Amino acid sequence: MATKGKDFAGLSVALVTPFKDGEVDYETFRSQIEFQIEAGTTCLCPVGTTGESPTLTHEEHERVVDFVVQTAAGRIKVMPGVGSNSTAEALRLTKSAEKAGADAALQVAPYYNKPTQEGFYQHFKALAEETGLPQCVYNIPGRTGKNIEPETIARLGELENITMVKEATGSLDQASQVLASTNLTLLSGDDSLTLPFMAVGGEGVISVAGNIVPKDVIALVEAAARGDLHAACQQHHKLFTLCRDMLGLATNPIPLKAAMQMLGRDSGEMRLPMTPLDDAGRTKLKATLTAYGLL
């Protein structure tokens, strides 16, 4: 059976949301989108964790999705984060993204309220059946508080509109189990696990590092896809050092936004409760970016 969601294989970038004086900075946002299109990125994923969706109002959320879709203008796929811990709210956001012209929907597992596995199934089933967009199930128990078990994902994979899973459990065993029991396109949710996941059948990544080095992430994904293990390993080790020394400094997207500010691509501004990287972190980050050749 052909893999569902295969047209989203490759690099998807979890876009930051740029701010200026407390408001979304659409001028900077446009340049960031164009940067990804020029790099050859497959898909843009706005208003996710990296996009600080928890501190956007629903009105801002919908406007950002509409802006990204309109700016992309069919030149690149758009899969916004539209998940919620309320099924009704996730459905409303998904329908809004569908109306805006998004290509797919990234659905984070309901968080905080910790549904049962049957609750997870019924949540994603409702989203898949009540909207026309392909759905990507986003499993990140480190943030949501509960894992969507592989058996539940296998059940979900039987539904027509559920075509992808963003695997951010950090478990190669879980990724392997999902791949063995479904025909979903599996995308890594962790930059450092892209190569291991692709080695067992994954088809790409929804990347944070892709905000600053998309061509390097694409080189890794393409080498892995064609079976060039030597080239893929070289890119993996290069990117691993960057991701470890950058993203390990603080909660995402704090160090990423600091890096983009240093590179002249973002103001670095965030909304509370997210706070800027401290001076010691910025010193380490500058050294990391310099060693990588970005500064």
From TrEMBL:
SUPFAM superfamilies assigned: Aldolase
SMART domains linked: DHDPS
Residues at the active site: Y138, K166
A Gene Ontology term for the protein's cellular component: cytosol
Swiss-Prot/TrEMBL site (Part of a proton relay during catalysis) positions: T49, Y112
Mitochondrion in keyword set: no
Reactions this protein catalyses: L-aspartate 4-semialdehyde + pyruvate = (2S,4S)-4-hydroxy-2,3,4,5-tetrahydrodipicolinate + H2O + H(+)
Matching InterPro entries: Aldolase_TIM, DapA, DapA-like
Binding site for pyruvate: T50, I206
One GO MF term: 4-hydroxy-tetrahydrodipicolinate synthase activity
GO biological process: diaminopimelate biosynthetic process; lysine biosynthetic process via diaminopimelate
Membership in a protein family: Belongs to the DapA family.
Protein name: 4-hydroxy-tetrahydrodipicolinate synthase
Organism encoding this protein: Posidoniimonas corsicana
